[in-house]
Amino acid sequence: MTKTKKEKSATEEESGGTEKSYQELLVNINPIANPLASRKLSKKLYKCVKKAAKHKQIRRGVKEVQKFINKGEKGIVVLAGDTLPIDVYCHLPVMCEDKNLPYAYIPSKVDLGASAGSKRPTCVIMIKPHEEYKEAYDECLEEVSALPKPL
Question: The domain spanning residue 122 has which CATH number?
């Protein structure tokens, strides 16, 4: 067995075995998923979502996120790139740009839901800032804001 296969099996054991790689997830993303977070940034965002969910500082789902964007709440909006039909949430990036909110797409709604502590896939989550995970939030905020916005 080669070293890469050993590494793969070790990571599969850690994550439960059925998790798809970043490359495999990229196959299913839709055409509007731009700016797409890199593998490294996706991991950071999942960790930040997990911490925020622990402190009940997330908004989950299209209706809830949309409502709080309209109310002027601040945070990072994380959208799942594999959501179909796109009509469900294609208006959210425009709303984010109008309110100057940073947003990024990640490849999987299943992983996004799981990181929020839910058994259901989630297509959009807003991470609200909080003192308990300020470092992780600020790091994600900086990297998401640095992503190039679509034309």
Answer: 3.30.1330.30
